[in-house]
Design brief:
By secondary structure, the protein is an alpha/beta fold. It contains 23 helices and twelve strands. The longest helix has 22 residues.
């Protein structure tokens, strides 16, 4: 993270934490209320890459540099994701072989650290599992290892799909790993719920538990796969099939997609794809405004924000600014569209990972952000990004013999982090560290007291933090 404060002709102050800047008497301590609105209405987090919770303190956007002279300051972009030159292979097997070569190099180069100081996160999904499998293979070939892994899980034998997949990967690779038990947040020794420089990081409190465990074991570098979802993004794959007249295949992909993610009927989703593929742009434009405002009203109803505060902060203008961040990403060039989506889609996760890793004194490294991996995946044929509803299809093929089939062909994306977050908040409530009266006093200018009271009652009555109490989890 790179935060800075600039007073032209007087001073330029920078640090990796806002508090390191705020302690200086020359820097005004003024809350940025707009950012508080972005925080309470979760969808506004991506409104820009520069604002912080304090007026006059900014964060440097990804792939930008700041140049400061006596005459002023200039922020400029030094790199942007680029699809690079296309590569063409005759068969899926050739794509698989070429990807493995590129990905293995990306993983191997991120293992360049003093022996015994690198580890990896391990969830029950494909991204971190693939990194661990390839990294362990590289270390074994060098006569080193085993690779330390860090997972949030439930105990073996518990009814938890993600935990089952984590243990399946560990057993398959002959690793033990370190597990932070999601049902026992009181066992975590670090003060993981406090002193968050960015309140947005409250949703990633489980990451503090994981990286805190790595720190205690002396690990200096932790690999992660946060960018896997973005790099293998299939984008508007199904509408592209429809525009090419491949209606049966588009239907099959939609059915497979719903089978993978679960949920409601396939027909509504297929109808949206049909509209995206065939409706004229003029018709889409007519419906876009009303649809956008309906969605924004839903966001507001789902949040705790006070209507008075929303009006005072001009919440509609903030929604418009956020929407502008995502406009213009689509392109007839599929490779260009894929790389355009990287920055707005990825900033949230990478910035959080970076901030929390810095808190733990750890460097986070993600092989999926390697430029060669990005460029290779940008030019993948659609059917290797998704096939029969299976996302990251090429990665699943490439990990044959390297990961257990229970992981390679596991449906859905379970996230045990929500379990840990809920148990952690309940633990803090039980200790008296999180109280309704404290929340009411702190948030009075910004939240609707009735909604806050209702959420608290629902949560204390056994309601799910995911459905009833999520905004308060973020605040904490």
């Amino acid at each position: 993270p790179f935060y800075y404060h600039h007073a032209p002709g007087e001073r330029f102050i920078f640090a990796s934490e806002t508090r390191s800047i705020l302690v200086l008497p020359q820097v005004p301590y003024t809350i940025n209320e707009g950012r508080i609105a972005d925080f309470i209405v979760q969808q506004l987090e991506w409104i820009d890459y520069t604002s912080t919770f304090f007026e006059g303190i900014y964060r440097l956007p990804p792939a930008h540099k700041v140049t400061v002279t006596s005459s002023g300051m200039r922020v400029s972009e030094y790199w942007a994701p680029d699809p690079g030159p296309p590569q063409h292979y005759a068969t899926d097997e050739e794509y698989e072989e070429a990807f493995l070569e590129v990905f293995s190099r990306a993983v191997g180069e991120r293992l360049r650290v003093p022996e015994g100081s690198v580890g990896s996160m391990l969830s029950g999904g494909m991204d971190s599992g693939s990194i661990v499998a390839v990294a362990q293979g590289i270390l074994e070939a060098r006569g080193k290892g085993p690779l330390p892994t860090y997972s949030l899980a439930r105990a073996r034998g518990a009814d938890c799909l993600e935990s089952e997949r984590i243990y399946a990967t560990l057993d398959f690779l002959g690793l033990e790993g370190t597990q932070i038990l999601a049902d026992d947040p009181g066992s975590v020794k670090d003060d993981i719920g406090r002193n968050l420089d960015e309140p947005f990081d409250g949703i990633f409190v489980f990451m503090r538990a994981i990286l805190g465990a790595a720190k205690r074991e002396g690990t200096k570098v932790v690999l992660d796969g946060a960018a896997g979802d973005i790099v293998f993004n299939e984008g508007a794959y199904i509408p592209r099939l429809l525009r090419r007249g491949l209606i049966r295949r588009a239907w099959r992909e939609t059915v497979g997609q719903r089978a993978f993610w679960g949920g409601s009927s396939t027909l509504p989703y297929f109808g949206r794809y049909l509209a995206s593929a065939y409706l004229p742009d003029a018709v889409k434009q007519l419906s876009r405004g009303p649809r956008k405002r309906r969605r924004e009203r839903e966001y507001l109803r789902a949040s705790l924000i006070s209507p008075d505060f929303a009006r005072r902060i001009n919440i509609e203008e903030r929604f418009d600014r956020m929407q502008a961040r995502f406009s213009g990403l689509q392109s007839p060039d599929t490779a260009l569209e894929r790389v355009r989506k990287i920055q707005p889609s990825y900033t949230e996760g990478r910035e959080r990972y970076g901030r929390i890793a810095a808190w733990a004194g750890i460097e986070g490294r993600d092989p999926f952000t390697d430029q060669r991996v990005v460029e290779f995946c940008a030019h993948l044929p659609d059917h290797l990004c998704a096939r029969d509803g299976w996302p990251k299809f090429l990665l699943r093929r490439a990990m044959a013999g390297r990961l257990p089939d229970a992981v390679r062909w596991g449906r859905g994306k379970p996230h045990i982090g929500f379990v840990f977050s809920e148990n952690f908040v309940r633990h803090e409530v039980s200790l008296g560290r999180l109280r309704l009266d404290g929340l009411q006093a702190m948030l009075a200018p910004y939240v609707d007291p009735g909604r806050l009271q209702k959420s608290w009652v629902q949560f204390r009555s056994g309601g799910s933090i995911e459905q009833d109490f999520r905004p308060i989890e973020h605040v904490y």
